[in-house]
């Protein structure tokens, strides 16, 4: 099965981190990414630019409404994701708990829908 | 043999049959339906043709045949071939149909029901449904919710098991202690739901589940401890409330009316668990409960057991319970000092009722009155409230 691991943490934590700490955190992410590539669990993964760069769009009654900002203002923000291959939710959770942000933010793990023919 | 062998077989065999069918089918709903149908057939045939020698095996075979019929009707050829093959393996020889040697899968089932990806309420509800065979209205009553809400909760939980890929298995050794804790907590939750409300059937179900766990995991001292704890509490069920439904304190309960058989079994279980030298919260709580079962309670021993419990699992509620034991063992002034040292329970009604009781024993009536009043503010309507009101007005 494929699982989407959505990484939520506070952008301010990253913004306020001293540079050497931030570099260490990035390095930790790179090590983790390499590890799940080596184990064959990695399908895709990216970090997102901060929500200050987000734009939301919706269409109502045929009218397109574009607004500055994220879908919802929350204390923690979606900052990135990993798409992983795992045999069941236990394996997916084991991978998710190793994502560095799990220690200061929250990782939401969602199975990916498989469309039946 | 009881009056109704079908009801008896249902209680004994439902969970086992469901777990075996889930293993073969990988489909919770189909497994549950097939087993329900098998019992419906049993209710019709057993009174007429007699009870089979091995009721459990009969139920599994009948449920398997029902599931095969359903699959033949409903599934496309490709998907059903694999499932049919697994189902047929349950009884390779059609003639002999003996499934009594199929391994018990209830442990995998209870660990799946209590998976941490499900929240606590659905864990308890699913366990009652799939292992205990309780109906939705019965479970709704147990959790004090409406039937529609409970039906939805069960559907959602079963859907999540399937969609999120929650595995049907006993967790690997490295995850076992943590996962076992969730299983034991769920069974204890079911017991307490029945105990606090004096709904006997739920507590009986929890004891039955606890017994099953000790058979499936005979070397797990905490499983033994939990069963012991439930039996020892249950032994006092009949004396906890008086004829008017008012609370009777432990020291005032009629010990001659406690259930001797449950006490004996509970004590033996605690001893055999503690001999394994891997103490845990349920064993220690059971040991404390066992200290109450003599002619009088062994308070100094109870204080020591609370100390051990606190060392393993620090908790202000346990500290408060310990202060009561200290008062009994060493006098109310020591108990009060221990109760006053507890922090974080300012809005916990039992802190105030405990302090009130100790202050009363020390003759500090004004302070006792204030503490009873504070406890009353925090207590909802019911037997407890009447008890406190009675105490307050007698001052």
Question: What do you see in this structure?
Answer:
Chain A has helices at residues 11-15, 19-38, 89-96; strands at residues 2-9, 42-47, 55-60, 63-68, 77-85, 106-111. The mean pLDDT of chain A is 94. Chain A is of the alpha+beta class. Helices cover 28% and strands 35% of the residues of chain A. Chain A has one domain: Dimeric alpha+beta barrel (Alpha-Beta Plaits, 2-Layer Sandwich). Chain B is mainly alpha-helical. Among the domains of chain B are: 5-95, Orthogonal Bundle (Rna Polymerase Sigma Factor, Chain: A), CATH 1.10.1740; 298-395, Tetratricopeptide repeat domain (Serine Threonine Protein Phosphatase 5, Tetratricopeptide repeat). In chain B, 69% of the residues lie in helices and 0% in strands. Chain B contains 19 helices and no strands. Chain B has helices at 5-25, 28-49, 55-74, 77-89, 106-113, 120-130, 136-142, 147-163, 176-196, 200-216, 221-234, 260-274, 281-291, 299-312, 316-330, 332-340, 349-361, 365-377, 383-393. In chain B, helix 11 (221-234) runs antiparallel to helix 12, helix 14 (299-312) runs antiparallel to helix 15 and helix 15 packs parallel to helix 17 (349-361). The longest helix of chain B has 22 residues, at 28-49. The termini of chain B are far apart. The model of chain B is unreliable at 92-96 (pLDDT under 50). The A-B interface holds A 1, 3, 86-90, 92-93, 111 and B 115, 117, 163-167, 171, 175.
Low-confidence stretches of chain B: 92-96
Give the class of chain A from helix and strand content and strand pairing.
alpha+beta
Number of strands of chain A: 6
Beta-strand segment tally of chain B: 0
Oligomer kind = heterodimer
Name of the CATH first level of chain A:
Alpha Beta
For the largest beta sheet of chain A, what order do the strands appear in spatially?
A: 2-5-1-6
Mean pLDDT of chain B: 89
CATH-defined superfamily of chain A = Dimeric alpha+beta barrel
Shape assignment of chain A: flat
User: What is the alpha-carbon Rg of chain B in Å?
Assistant: 24 Å
Which CATH top level class of the domain at 298-395 in chain B fits? Mainly Alpha
Q: Examine the secondary-structure arrangement and name the CATH architecture of chain A.
A: 2-Layer Sandwich
Tally the helices of chain A: 3
| Unreliable spans of chain A | none
Taking the alpha carbons of the first and last residues of chain B, their distance comes to: 55 Å
**Main pleated sheet of chain A:** 4 strands, antiparallel
Tell me the count of domains of chain A.
1
């Amino acid at each position: 099965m494929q699982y989407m691991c959505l990484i939520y943490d506070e952008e301010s934590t990253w913004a306020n981190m001293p540079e050497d700490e931030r570099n260490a955190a990035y390095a930790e992410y790179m090590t983790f990414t390499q590890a799940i590539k080596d184990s064959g669990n990695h399908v895709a993964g990216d970090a997102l630019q901060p929500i200050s760069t987000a734009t939301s769009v919706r269409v109502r009654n045929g009218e397109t409404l574009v607004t500055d900002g994220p879908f919802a203002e929350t204390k923690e923000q979606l900052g990135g994701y990993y798409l992983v291959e795992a045999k069941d939710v236990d394996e997916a959770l084991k991978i998710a708990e190793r994502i560095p942000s799990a220690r200061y933010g929250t990782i939401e793990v969602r199975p990916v829908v498989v469309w039946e023919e | 043999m009881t009056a109704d062998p079908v009801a008896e077989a249902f209680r004994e065999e439902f969970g086992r049959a469901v777990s075996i069918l889930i293993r073969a089918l990988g489909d919770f709903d189909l497994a549950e339906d097939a087993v329900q149908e098998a019992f419906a057939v049993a209710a019709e045939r057993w009174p007429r043709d007699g009870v089979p020698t091995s009721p459990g095996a009969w139920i599994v075979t009948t449920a398997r045949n029902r599931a095969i019929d359903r699959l033949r009707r409903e599934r496309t050829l490709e998907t059903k071939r694999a499932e049919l093959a697994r189902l047929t393996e349950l009884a390779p020889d059609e003639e002999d149909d003996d499934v009594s040697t199929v391994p018990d899968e209830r442990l995998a089932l209870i660990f799946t029901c209590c998976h941490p990806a499900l929240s606590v309420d659905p864990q308890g509800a699913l366990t009652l449904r799939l292992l205990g065979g309780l109906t939705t209205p019965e479970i709704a009553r147990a959790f004090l919710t409406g039937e529609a809400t409970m039906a939805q909760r069960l559907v959602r939980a079963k859907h999540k098991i399937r969609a999120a890929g929650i595995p049907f298995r006993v967790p690997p050794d490295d995850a076992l202690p943590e996962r076992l804790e969730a299983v034991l907590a769920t069974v204890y939750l079911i017991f307490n739901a029945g105990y606090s409300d004096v709904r006997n059937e739920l507590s009986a179900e929890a004891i039955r589940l606890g017994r099953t766990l000790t058979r499936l995991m005979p070397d797990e001292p905490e499983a033994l401890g939990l069963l012991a704890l439930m039996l020892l509490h249950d032994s006092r069920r009949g004396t906890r409330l008086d004829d008017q439904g008012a609370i009777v304190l432990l020291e005032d309960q009629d010990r001659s009316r406690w259930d001797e058989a449950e006490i004996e079994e509970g004590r033996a279980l605690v001893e055999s668990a503690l001999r394994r030298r891997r103490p845990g919260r349920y064993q220690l709580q059971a040991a404390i409960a066992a200290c109450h079962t003599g002619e009088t309670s062994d308070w100094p021993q109870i204080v020591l057991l609370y100390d051990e419990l606190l060392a393993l699992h620090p908790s202000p509620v346990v500290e408060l319970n310990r202060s009561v034991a200290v008062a009994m063992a060493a006098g109310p002034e020591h108990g009060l000092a221990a109760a006053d040292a507890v922090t974080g329970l300012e809005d916990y009604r039992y802190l105030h009722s405990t302090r009130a009781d100790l202050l009363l024993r020390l003759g500090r009536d004004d302070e006792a009155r204030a503490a009873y009043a504070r406890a009353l503010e925090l207590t909802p309507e019911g037997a407890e409230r009447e008890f406190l009101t009675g105490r307050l007005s007698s001052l």
